[in-house]
């Protein structure tokens, strides 16, 4: 049995996406993204906006801005769960 020894930080987000149509009948995605620990919310006009919101947290910008040093980041204490990685 393998043992996980690397601790890593965890960020938790809630993402809600929905489709909206415009007058010309074209659908596009809209969304709301929330960083759970800080309750900071961003509204996005496309799926790429979700990535931009997440990048603020993964690149450390939000941690510097709030003075928390990585808001909502939590070490898993070296435990390994069966977590999947979304690409």
General description of the model:
The structure is a single chain. This protein is α+β, with helices and mostly antiparallel strands and 87 residues long. The protein has one domain. Helix content is 21%, strand content 31%. The protein has helices spanning 47-58, 61-66; strands at 9-10, 13-21, 27-35, 40-44, 74-75. The strands form two sheets. Strands 2-3-4 form a three-stranded antiparallel beta sheet, with helices on one face. A two-stranded antiparallel ribbon has the order 1-5. The longest helix has 12 residues, at 47-58. The chain is elongated and about 50 Å long. The model is unreliable at 64-87 (pLDDT under 50).
Mean pLDDT over the residues: 73
How many strands appear in the DSSP assignment? 5
The radius of gyration computed from the alpha-carbon positions, rounded to a whole number of angstroms, is 16 Å
Q: In whole angstroms, how far apart are the ends?
A: 27 Å
Oligomer: single chain
Q: H/E series, N to C?
A: EEEEHHE
Strand order of the main beta sheet, please?
A: 2-3-4
The helix fraction, in percent, is 10-25%
Sequence stretches where pLDDT stays below 50 over 5 or more residues: 64-87
> Per the principal axes of the C-alpha atoms, what is the gross shape?
elongated
Strand content: 25-35%
- How can the largest sheet be summarized? 3 strands, antiparallel
Continuous helix count: 2
* Overall tally of structural domains: 1
């Amino acid at each position: 049995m393998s043992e996980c020894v690397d601790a890593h930080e965890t960020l938790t987000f809630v993402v809600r996406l929905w489709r909206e149509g415009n007058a010309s009948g074209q659908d596009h995605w809209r969304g709301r993204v929330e960083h759970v620990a800080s309750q900071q919310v961003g509204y996005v006009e496309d799926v790429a906006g979700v990535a931009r919101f997440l990048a603020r947290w993964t690149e450390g910008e939000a941690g510097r801005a709030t003075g928390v040093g990585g808001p909502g980041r939590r070490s898993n204490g070296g435990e390994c769960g069966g977590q999947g990685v979304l690409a």
